[in-house]
Structures are given as structure tokens and as C-alpha cells.
Amino acid sequence: MDTESSWFEARLRMVKEQIEQRGIRDPRVLQAMREVPRHLFVPEEEQPYAYEDCPLPIGFGQTISQPYMVAIMTALLELRGDEKVLEVGTGSGYQAAILSRIAREVHTIERHQALAQKAGERLQALGYTNVKVHVGDGSLGIPEEAPFQGIIVTAAAPKVPTPLLEQLSMNAYLVIPVGGPGGQELMRWQKTPAGFEPKELFPVAFVPLRGKEGWKEDQWYSR
Ligand code: SAM
């Protein structure tokens, strides 16, 4: 068996055992997770663990999220395929690549210039041409690209950033971990004609969202 086919086998196994068996049924999410080569989004020394059931370090004290977390957060957006979406916290670019298989247009924003540049080059090299990588404070969203028909935040916020709610289209969802080092909940907010409807889902553990609407260095010590 050549290397490509063993990566592919590992990916199929990951989807079956970690994603499907935990109840994710959206066929577009499952197909995207089968297609995107996660091992090409992690540092070389982490590649042997690329399809394990865990987050992995990607430099700058940051991580690529656990595959299941990527899958469930994507599924929670309930995308149909013609949406313009925003991801806050590009990291490796993996979550953006998954979104790009399902949505029409993906904007992703990262505060670390070096991570953003590497992710942008990687996404380009792999042919994910409907993803645009931005550098900046994603806690403020990207007002000039709004509205979005879905927003995912992949770092934990002290509270839901108002600018992100303001950049949602009618009926669209914002999926975001909220909380601090002592505990966080994954939340989904929907913009409805009657106002914003929040829903608390389950406990999670993410790195901090920084920036104007995020955690300050002295409130949560890490990079
Ligand atoms: N989604 C990423 C992936 O697929 O590899 C993993 C993201 S990692 C868990 C969280 C990322 O959020 C980090 O890369 C961090 O630098 C970034 N981040 C934190 N605060 C941010 C902010 N205010 N604006 C943009 N990015 C931010």
C-alpha cells in the first residue's frame, strides 16, 4: 500500500470511528472530512498523529482542533452549499478547508501573521481557491465582507462578541466557545426575526480568543 492510500485509509477510519459513531450524519460534512488531507495541515513531526482523536500543536502555542470538534461545529452551521461564511481563528487552515468543501465562499481571519501566511500558502497549494485568509483581530469580524450566512469561532471568548452577531444574516448561526480557563460551553446563536436566540450545547476546551472582544493577556495567561 502506498503512503497516499494509507493516509486515505486512516482518514476513512477517523470519519467512521470518531465522527459517524458519535452521531454526525450530515453527508456533506462526512464527505469533506473524508477528502481533506489533515496530515498536510500539521507540522511534520505531528503527522503520524494527524488522524488521532485529539487536537495537535501547530506552533505559537496554538492547536489544530480535534477532528470531531471540527465536524460538529461545521454541522451546527447547517450549511446548504451557497453560503458565504466566516471563520475566526485560521490556525492551520484545516477548518477553513473543510468549510470550503461545503460553503460557496470562506473568509478566515487569524491574528498571528506567520500562521495566516502559512495557512494561506497551504490552502492555495492544495487548491482550496474559495478561501480568503485575512490577518487581524477576528473578534471584530470582517465588517467589509459581512453579512455571513454562518460564523465559526475556534477560540474561546469571554462573552459573545456583539460585532459577530451584527455580521450574521437573518436565520444564520454563530457557533462559538464561550468561557475561560476554568470552563467553557460551546454555544450556538441564531439571528431570527424576533432577535438572537442563544443555545448552550456542551462543555469544550479551546485556546483563548484575544483582541478587542476577547481575553486580555492578564486575564488568561497564554500566547
Ligand atoms: N481553526 C484552526 C485550525 O483548523 O487549525 C484552529 C484554531 S486554534 C484552536 C485558535 C486560533 O485562533 C489560533 O490560531 C489563534 O491565534 C487564533 N486567534 C485567537 N484570537 C484571535 C483573534 N482575535 N483574531 C483572530 N485569530 C485569533
Automatic annotation (TrEMBL):
Pfam families reported in the protein's UniProt record: PCMT (PF01135)
Catalysis: reaction(s): [protein]-L-isoaspartate + S-adenosyl-L-methionine = [protein]-L-isoaspartate alpha-methyl ester + S-adenosyl-L-homocysteine
Cell compartment(s), UniProt: Cytoplasm
Cross-referenced Gene3D superfamilies: Vaccinia Virus protein VP39
Primary site of residence: cytoplasm
EC id: 2.1.1.77
GO molecular function: protein-L-isoaspartate (D-aspartate) O-methyltransferase activity
GO cellular component term of the entry, any: cytoplasm
Active-site residues per Swiss-Prot or TrEMBL entry: 65
InterPro entries the UniProt entry points to: PCMT, SAM-dependent_MTases_sf
Keywords of this entry: Cytoplasm, Methyltransferase, S-adenosyl-L-methionine, Transferase
One Gene Ontology term from the biological process aspect of the record: protein repair
Family: Belongs to the methyltransferase superfamily. L-isoaspartyl/D-aspartyl protein methyltransferase family.
Function text: Catalyzes the methyl esterification of L-isoaspartyl residues in peptides and proteins that result from spontaneous decomposition of normal L-aspartyl and L-asparaginyl residues. It plays a role in the repair and/or degradation of damaged proteins.
Protein name from the UniProt record: Protein-L-isoaspartate O-methyltransferase
Organism: Anaerolinea thermophila (strain DSM 14523 / JCM 11388 / NBRC 100420 / UNI-1)
